[in-house]
Amino acid sequence: MIPLRDDIPSRTFPGVTIAIIIANVLAFVNELRMGDGLEDFLHQYALVPIRYTDSSVGTHFSLFEQALPFLTSMFLHGGWIHLIGNMWVLWIFGDNVEDRLGHRRYVGLYLLGGFAAGALHVFTNAGSEVPTLGASGAVAAVMGSYFRFYPHARVETVIPPLFFGPVFELPAVLFLGWWALLQFFNGSLSLAAPHDAAGVAWWAHVGGFLFGMIVSLFASREAPRKRRYEQREAAW
């Protein structure tokens, strides 16, 4: 399912969400310019699990060089579709989470969620030499937070390959909950696959989503306001 929009208007300008999208686009444009040097660049700045689980490999990198990919990998992508997919989902769900948490806490959620996603990916793919890249783990943290804050929001979706309809309107708790279950199911299946097999970082998605959902349990609630969403939530 591909989300098209939600029905929760943002009260504030989503400056951080827009800045993250711009940063990802600029980073991808930089990748396109690298040509033959891209492979070496990705092995340096994407997340390669074996660097952290095999001491004979890890000794070739300093502590800073080992820590940096947990950040830089969040801003690298494997293609236009990869980039657009992640940024589209971030745009749909990120503005409301930024609105709810405020700009600074939202930055913390995004970055720390990406770190948590990367850590779980390394743990579940310990022997992999495949560079892992993409914002999906951090975006999953935003989705987990949205799941916590706006479970009764409505999300318009389409089902591929029917991109032009029909459009289905689903409660966010159903849309995001189903997405999270699919990540866990596919992640469980991936544990039986060879570590060097390229594919989707399912466990990064699971880790990011759980991080966003759990930390949002401790976020202070806003004062009640007369909003269409809150009125519907009370009657749901």
What does this protein structure show overall?
- By secondary structure, the protein is mostly helical.
- The chain has a single domain, classed as Up-down Bundle (Rhomboid-like fold), CATH 1.20.1540.10.
- The protein has a 3-stranded antiparallel beta sheet.
- The relative contact order is 0.16.
Low-confidence runs: 223-236
**What is the helix tally?**
11
Name the beta content range. 5-15%
Tell me the number of structural domains.
1
Question: CATH topology, which one?
Answer: Rhomboid-like fold
The strand count comes to 3
Main beta sheet: strand number and arrangement? 3 strands, antiparallel
End-to-end distance:
24 Å
Shape: globular
Q: Give the assembly state of these chains.
A: single chain
What is the CATH domain class? Mainly Alpha
Write the layout of secondary structure elements.
Layout: E1 2-6, H1 15-32, H2 38-45, H3 50-53, H4 55-58, H5 63-72, H6 80-101, H7 103-124, H8 136-149, E2 154-158, E3 168-171, H9 172-190, H10 202-216, H11 228-235
Antiparallel strand pairs: 1-2, 2-3
